[in-house]
Design brief:
The chain is of the alpha/beta class. The chain has 16 helices and twelve strands. The relative contact order is 0.12.
């Protein structure tokens, strides 16, 4: 089956790029242009006509990539035309009339590249991350993964496990033969090395996932403390409705920002108070759930009501900043006990000390986003496989020490399998759908 799709994104543009990949690609180009395919990888200007008629669709550039030297590993072409909806629709309609040609599914071009051995699974994911990147730090992380360092590290650890497994299986197959002591010692040393390496990789404070998904900041506090005003100020637009009526915000309102190049997701939540209103109670429950998920909590309170409930006190941990709003209405000093907390005194209405709050947020971001070349995990999928691998390695270690080699070998096989699933070295059909469905059509 040959697939085609707009790869340059929807909307009016100066240029649109339509990709075609599969056995019928050459035929499609010949039918559209009335000429043979151009020289490989040479941009060639051609008139592009409706199939079976002489009606001109547009004049554009044809790029021909014969397989296997193409992105997908199949015969592939890119057609560059003017980016109007009418031109793209006419081109799509013409290609659809060719036998065995259909519109591509999301991520199908990159899925073909993976299935045809052009890229590994980590690189496929990094392509998606690069397309989705909104900040410089996200782009840098995606490029690092694309360059293959993560895949090289996981493959290196997997190869070490396979070597250990070969020694263990030799002991199983030839029980009467004594393996050299240095081999038995090497099994223990190598498995311990891999185990420590994986523990180190997992001990990354989830920085890779934070960069990819965004640093989560939850704005919490009682009603009418200024939470919605704060998210509007930080977003520089009216994200949430601001009202004197208590309990206006019932659901969680999110906005995506870039603060000093760091990707941030800020959530405005329902005011926390005792309520008999069922809808408001659900909103408060969502607020507390969002507090648990947040990387940083901004607990906003009013200077006129600084008596904290037990719920508010529980939110003020090491990952929280106490934001005391409406400082312009403050009479006298705040309680010395409150001064001991990580706090900032602001007035959103009078624009007082908000720079100090933003500075505190930036410092928190910088501390959480300490990046090194050792950051290899960017998705929860990677973490789950590594945790499973670690569990099987610990089981292997226990069984190997009591020379239960048969069961130890099975744990080693499972550990190797989980490492392989990260880069796509084993049958990973069950996870392909969830990965490539996140792509846009045409990639």
């Amino acid at each position: 089956m040959t697939i085609y799709a707009l790869s340059s994104g929807p909307g009016v543009s100066g240029i649109a790029v339509v990709r075609i990949s599969g056995q019928e690609t050459a035929k499609a180009i010949e039918l559209l242009t009335g000429k043979n395919v151009p020289k490989p990888r040479v941009a060639t200007l051609r008139k592009i006509n409706k199939i079976n008629t002489s009606e001109l669709i547009d004049e554009g550039i044809i790029l021909w990539f014969p397989g296997p030297e193409s992105y997908t590993g199949e015969d592939m072409a890119e057609i560059q035309v003017h980016g109007s909806k009418a031109v793209i629709d006419a081109l799509h309609t013409s290609i659809s009339k060719i036998k065995n040609c259909r519109l591509a599914e999301p991520g199908e071009f990159t899925k073909l590249a993976f299935l045809n051995g052009k890229i590994n699974l980590l690189k496929a994911e990094s392509v998606s991350d690069l397309i989705s990147s909104e900040t410089e730090i996200q782009r840098q992380q995606a490029i690092k993964i694309m360059n293959g360092k993560s895949a090289d590290q996981f493959n290196f650890l997997r190869e070490k496990l396979l070597k250990i497994l070969s020694h263990v299986e030799a002991k199983i197959d030839f029980p009467d033969e004594d393996l050299p002591n240095d081999i038995l010692g090497e099994i223990k040393k190598s498995s311990d090395d891999v185990l420590k390496n994986i523990e180190k990789i997992l001990n990354d404070q989830r920085v890779g996932e934070r960069i990819r998904e965004g640093f989560k900041i939850a704005i919490l506090g009682p009603t009418n403390a200024g939470k919605s005003s704060l998210i509007n100020y930080l977003s520089k637009r009216d994200v949430a409705i601001v009202s004197e009526v208590a309990g206006t915000t019932r659901d969680v309102i999110e906005t995506h920002l870039s603060i000093d190049g760091y990707p941030v997701i800020i959530s405005d939540t329902a005011g926390i108070r005792d309520s008999k209103d069922e809808i408001e109670k659900k909103g408060i429950k969502l607020s507390l759930n969002r507090a648990e998920e947040a990387d940083l909590k901004l607990v906003v309170v009013d200077t006129k009501s600084l008596d904290f409930t037990d719920v508010l006190k529980s939110l003020l941990d090491e990952n929280a900043i106490l934001v005391i709003n409406k400082s312009d209405l403050l009479e006298g000093e705040i309680n010395p006990e409150i001064k001991k907390l990580n706090h900032v005194l602001i007035s959103i209405k009078e624009n007082l000390n908000i720079d100090e709050l933003i500075s505190k947020i930036k410092n928190n971001l910088k501390n959480k986003f300490i990046t090194t070349d050792d950051i290899l995990i960017t998705r929860e999928r990677h973490r789950q496989h590594l945790e499973q691998c670690l569990e099987h390695l610990n089981n292997f270690k226990k069984k190997n020490e009591v020379e239960d080699f048969d069961k130890a070998a099975e744990d080693l096989r499972l550990a190797t399998r989980h490492l392989g699933m990260i880069v796509g070295k084993v049958d990973v059909e069950e996870i392909l759908g969830s990965i490539f469905n996140d792509f846009c059509v045409g990639k």
